[in-house]
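pinned: reference chain
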Amino acid sequence: MVLTTPILEGLDGVNKMSKSLDNAIGIHQPPLEMYGKVMSISDEMMWRYYELLTDVSPASIEKMKRETATGAAHPMALKKDLARQIVSDFHSAQAGPGPARIGEAVPEE
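pinned: its structure tokens
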């Protein structure tokens, strides 16, 4: 039996993800660094990351693509969801950016 898996393109969207090519998202990187790297991928590459790095069904991914094409969904919102999913897979749901980390006002204590 032979098991093959697709190669994931790195942050540059061209070469395979590789630490030596400096286009990788390390699984041991801090949550905010991981989140930022996911946010840096292109909108087109986002779909490949959804396919290979999440449990989102292919039908749901196709639906998101259609909604983005028609303007019903914004790519930035979908990419933020992708980044949160990836960070929570390797850290925790609470490890991703909160309001203070993404530039929103922090409530005074």
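why pinned: The two ends are 60 Å apart (CA to CA). DSSP finds four helices and no strands in the chain.
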